[in-house]
Specification:
The protein has a single domain, classed as Alkaline Phosphatase, subunit A (3-Layer(aba) Sandwich). The protein has 13 helices and 15 strands. It is globular, with a radius of gyration of 21 Å. The N terminus is likely disordered.
């Protein structure tokens, strides 16, 4: 038996069972609300996660965590880059609904956030954020009593993790909501030893730098070109580094749980592309390599039967699920609570999901897609051709069925038009200054 894999489950069920028995015997009051930890590793495409079937051992810690919890194998971010997708994660709204679309935007004051709701319910709210993309000027710090921003350097990884541990260790009589956003594996793909060069496929012209990424993107190389294969290996090494960091953090949380109940969410803000559709990194396109993300829920000192879920879900579902687990009402009805699926394994109904992005020089142009069941319709820009894919038989989105299934494509196109027409106007009050733009450029923002 793999004792490491079963540590979470055994301790969780033993502690929870003892607690319930004591409550029943003593007629005690209802236990305090659970603490909530939301962990986001930036730019992690689910297709590069070992428990999703990837050949390389990139994510042993995530895989153990997911195996002891509930893993959603078909989870998708609402947008294909950090700022709008994180806003969607914490508001439960699409990009067009919350209006935080570009670096010039600020979250409207009347859009409530998960942190605000939990703070009003008595939670301590803390955020440890290692990316300049999520600067507080955009409004996502609202509701957090402490919102600490770190730069994206490797040195800051350890500083961010140290602060996260300090927040977890705080002695308080209130439950904790802790959001940890780690920069790796976002470009540059340059992890420290012993992760560097772990997966081979080295190329003399590829170090994993932002310059490498831009050069390969501009060259429009084939996905199997040697330079692209090398860049993928560097990305996978960076994933392994991020996975190890979060694994250590969760081990510390588990060791110092002190009997408190907690729900833990581990996910990513978006995926990462390697020329599958002509782009490297993440940007405005809405193909699945930029949207498919890992998502797993775990628990401390709370019963949770492990399972893998194949139903299609969205990161819009995280906020309503967390609130349901805390016994609180949802912020809105845009996302769906996964509460019953987590606790009872209830199947989710088929739904229609909307994806969108506006990015860089194309910020005024909406790129969007809609998914119903296994079918997905995409349109890049208002004048772009309709692209219809059957993801069951064509998961790489290669064979456009829009002409062959014209009536169905037009039906889905009407849904796209409806979403575009309901877009909320932006509140452009948060333009980055020169120093901010310099930091963003170091992460690859502001170029092609």
């Amino acid at each position: 038996m793999n004792t490491r894999r079963n540590t979470w489950s055994r301790r969780r069920f033993a502690a929870a069972g003892l607690l319930l028995a004591m409550l029943a015997a003593c007629g005690a009051e209802r236990p305090p609300p659970p603490s909530i930890l939301v962990i986001v590793v930036d730019s992690l495409h689910a297709g590069h996660v070992s428990s999703h079937g990837y050949a390389r051992p990139t994510t042993p810690n995530f895989d153990r965590f997911a195996a002891d919890g509930v893993q959603f194998l078909r989870a998708f971010s609402q947008s294909s880059w950090t700022l709008p997708s994180t806003a969607s994660l914490f508001t439960g709204l699409t990009q067009e609904q919350h209006a935080l679309r570009t670096f010039d935007d600020r979250l409207p004051a009347d859009v409530p956030t998960l942190a605000e709701r939990l703070k009003s319910a008595g939670y301590r709210t803390r955020a440890v954020v290692q990316t300049p993309v999520l600067a507080s000027r955009h409004g996502l710090s609202r509701g957090f009593e402490r919102y600490q921003l770190f730069d994206h350097s490797l040195e800051s990884v350890e500083r961010a993790l140290k602060l996260a541990r300090e927040h977890w260790d705080e002695a308080a009589d209130r439950p904790l909501f802790l959001y940890v956003h780690l920069a790796p594996p976002h470009m540059p793909y340059q992890p420290p030893a012993p992760f560097a060069a772990r997966f081979g496929d080295e190329h003399p012209d590829v170090s994993g730098s932002v310059a490498d990424c831009r050069r390969i993107h501009r060259a429009k190389l084939a996905p199997d070109a040697p330079q692209v294969r090398s860049l993928v290996a560097r990305y996978d090494e960076h994933i392994a580094f991020a996975d190890a960091c979060i694994g250590r953090l969760l081990a510390d949380f588990q060791r110092d749980a002190r009997g408190r109940a907690a729900w833990i969410v581990w996910t990513s803000d978006h995926g990462e592309a390697f020329l599958q559709h002509g782009s490297q990194g993440h940007n405005a396109t809405v193909y699945d390599e930029m949207l498919h993300v890992p998502l797993a829920f775990g628990a401390l000192n709370t019963p949770l039967a492990p399972r893998r879920v194949n139903d299609v879900v969205s990161t819009l579902d995280v906020a309503p699920t967390v609130l349901a687990l805390c016994g609180l009402p949802p912020l809105n009805d845009a996302g769906a609570s996964l509460h019953s699926t987590l606790l009872r394994g209830a199947a989710l109904p088929e739904r229609t999901l909307f994806f969108s992005s506006r990015y860089k020089a194309d910020a005024a142009v909406l790129h969007c897609a809609v998914r119903r069941g296994d079918f997905k319709l995409a349109q890049l820009g208002p004048d772009g051709p309709l692209e219809l894919y059957d993801l069951r038989t064509d998961p790489e989105e290669r064979s456009n069925l829009a002409a062959a299934r014209g009536e169905f494509a037009l039906e889905l196109a009407e849904l796209l038009a409806r979403e575009r027409g309901a877009a909320r106007a932006s509140e452009a009050h948060a333009a980055p200054q020169a120093a901010d733009r310099e930091q963003l450029a170091e992460l690859g923002y502001g170029g092609d």
